[in-house]
UniProtKB/TrEMBL annotation:
All residue ranges annotated as the Thiamine pyrophosphate enzyme TPP-binding domain in the record: 376-524
Family affiliation: Belongs to the TPP enzyme family.
Organism: Planococcus faecalis
Pfam families referenced in this protein's UniProt entry, alphabetically: TPP_enzyme_C (PF02775), TPP_enzyme_M (PF00205), TPP_enzyme_N (PF02776)
Protein name, per record: Acetolactate synthase
UniProt keyword annotation of Zinc-finger present: no
Cofactors (names): thiamine diphosphate
Lineage: Bacteria, Bacillati, Bacillota, Bacilli, Bacillales
Keywords: Thiamine pyrophosphate
Boundaries of every Thiamine pyrophosphate enzyme central domain copy: 188-324
Thiamine pyrophosphate enzyme N-terminal TPP-binding domain ranges (all copies): 1-117
PANTHER family per the UniProt record, alphabetical: ACETOLACTATE SYNTHASE CATALYTIC SUBUNIT, MITOCHONDRIAL, THIAMINE PYROPHOSPHATE ENZYMES
Length: 546
């Protein structure tokens, strides 16, 4: 049998349902054999970069291995941004690339490229298989590495002749996943000692608590401590929880910033955050100043990067929180019957001005509270983080730390495939749309009912605003000739509506664009010259010019 058939049997046997990518000559053997595996659906995208973002989103919300494939040469290079993104988000993706026949390597064959070397800095493992007999073993090894310890992307390059080589049919290997080291009970007791002595503190939660939100809330209530979220963790905590303070960092809330910068907290408990630039408001020293710092994370390399950590706890987040909660309860700490709400700024706004903030709030009024919003990169993103309400847990997908334009469009597709029953709305801009907007056709072809909201201001809004604030001028090329995106959608036979004024938004309009048998586009034609709530981001960038 063909070596690549063993690979597909392995993938099918381990629950892989989708393969994201684009067929091409160097991976045609893979797609040919895929015809015999109806349990695996190929999601054929319009661009390999978009396929990589879909695979990342699918891995995140299905909590399973994702598979993404591209051809040799440009197909592989187009996957690189998504692999780098997956590495930052700790998402297990098996990237497969075709390669020229082994016998032609080094002879300037068509689309020849050393993809192994390119993926090495941005993947946990990268290899080129030179013998058909080794292909399955390398796929299994890569998969185990992707899922073990700190999850992340891996890459296997498959030369054409290696895929098509004849091998024996092999039994489906079992994946042996390395788990996290057990939580150090001594450190848990040390942390409990400190928490019971120091009554004032706050919890700083990053994306690493995605699957441990209930435990974070229980711990916060036991301690009666406020919870501060990073921008990428927005959406994990409901706004109406009395102890949720809001987002700190890029586009964070003013009251949350005051709590961090001027509050009387003696302890900082960091959960699942690497304390990067956007999370810490440009490495704000006040976050940890004169505070006892405790950090729990499954990645030991995040400890003491920028902020000294007094007690680092390495291991699984859920296990660490469970043991800490149990230890505190064993010492007599109990959750209060009622939790007093912390003070925080209201999002109420009586204005009806046609601006980005009000449009986004109005959209939420007309959409189900369970809607997941996948947010692209742009000026509108700051308003999403600062102003949109979190009404149910895990309802925002914001990738501000890597910041790949166009990723939010594809993330919506990956999210919908992972959780078909959850309403999904992508919020993007015209700049992002022109990069990866044709993936709306992918959503159409697979009958995915996703609403794509395009904030169209005919400019690269974040670039324009940032330059104007930093340099007091901007290059005229940042602004572009307006394009009617709704008309483009009409040409693609995709349901659409164009919003030109605040009065155009209504429940009837949203009803007509949702619960369909495919995607729809809501274009918001709006040039908003208000300064976006980007916090100290511009000050930080400006400091490099002094």
């Amino acid at each position: 049998m063909k070596a690549v058939r063993n690979v597909l049997e392995f993938l099918e046997g381990n629950g892989v349902k989708y393969v994201f990518g684009i067929p091409a000559g160097s991976v045609n053997a893979f797609y040919d054999q895929l015809l015999d595996f109806p349990e695996i659906t190929p999601i054929v995208t319009k661009h390999e970069g978009a396929a990589s973002y879909m695979a990342a989103s699918y891995a995140k919300y299905s909590q399973q291995l994702s598979v993404c494939i591209g051809s040799s040469g440009p197909g592989g290079t187009n996957l690189l941004t998504g692999a780098a993104n997956a590495m930052r988000e700790h998402l297990p993706i098996l990237f497969l690339t075709g390669a020229v026949p082994v016998s032609t390597m080094g002879l300037n064959a068509s689309q020849e490229l050393d993809a192994q070397a390119l993926f090495q800095p941005i993947a946990k493992y990268s290899v080129t298989v030179l013998d058909s007999a080794d292909l399955l073993d390398e796929i299994v090894k890569a998969t185990q590495i992707a899922l073990s310890g700190i999850p992340g992307p891996v890459h296997v390059a498959m030369p054409i002749d290696v895929q098509m080589g004849n091998v024996e049919k092999l039994p489906i290997p079992k994946i042996e996943i390395e788990r996290h080291p057990p939580i150090d009970a001594t450190l848990v007791k040390q942390v409990a000692d400190h928490l019971l002595q120091k009554k004032k503190g706050f919890i700083f939660a990053g994306q690493g608590v995605r699957n441990s939100v209930a435990q974070v809330l229980e711990l916060a209530e036991l301690l009666n401590w406020p919870i501060v979220a990073t921008p990428v963790a927005k959406g994990l905590f409901r706004e109406d929880h009395p102890l949720f303070s809001g987002v700190f960092g890029f586009a964070g809330k003013d009251d949350t910033s005051l709590l961090v910068n001027e509050g009387d907290a003696e302890t900082l408990l960091v959960l699942g955050s690497s304390l990067g630039e956007t999370a810490t408001s440009n490495y704000n020293p006040n976050l940890a100043k004169d505070r006892f710092v405790i950090q729990i994370d499954f990645d030991s390399t995040v400890f003491n990067r920028k902020y000294p950590v007094d007690v680092p706890i390495h291991g699984d987040m859920s296990e660490g929180l469970t043991k800490l909660i149990e230890e505190l309860k064993a010492r007599g700490l109990e959750r209060p019957t009622t939790v007093k709400a912390i003070g925080r700024e209201s999002s109420a706004d009586t204005e009806e001005e046609f601006n980005t903030k009000n449009v986004l709030r109005k959209l939420q009024e007309f959409l189900p509270s369970s809607t997941r919003y996948t947010i692209d990169i742009g000026e509108f993103m700051a308003y999403v983080i600062h102003d949109m309400e979190v009404m149910e847990e895990d309802t925002f997908d914001i990738n501000v730390h890597f910041g790949a334009m166009g990723s939010g469009l594809s993330a919506a597709i990956g999210s919908k495939l992972a959780e078909p029953n959850r309403p999904v709305v992508a919020i993007t801009g015209d700049g992002c749309f022109f990069m990866h907007g044709m993936e709306i056709l992918t959503a159409k072809e697979y009958k995915l009912p996703i609403l794509f909201v395009v904030m169209n201001n005919a400019r690269l809004g974040m670039v324009y605003q940032g330059h104007t604030l930093q340099y007091k001028r901007s290059h005229p090329s940042f602004e572009q000739e307006p394009v009617n995106i709704a008309a483009m959608a009409e040409a693609l036979n995709i349901p659409n509506f164009r919003v030109d004024s605040f009065e155009d938004l209504s429940q009837n309009v949203l009803n007509a664009l949702t619960y369909l048998k495919g995607p729809a586009i809501l274009e918001v034609a709006l040039v908003d010259n208000n300064i976006p709530p980007m916090g100290d981001r511009v000050k930080f960038l400006s400091s490099f010019g002094k």
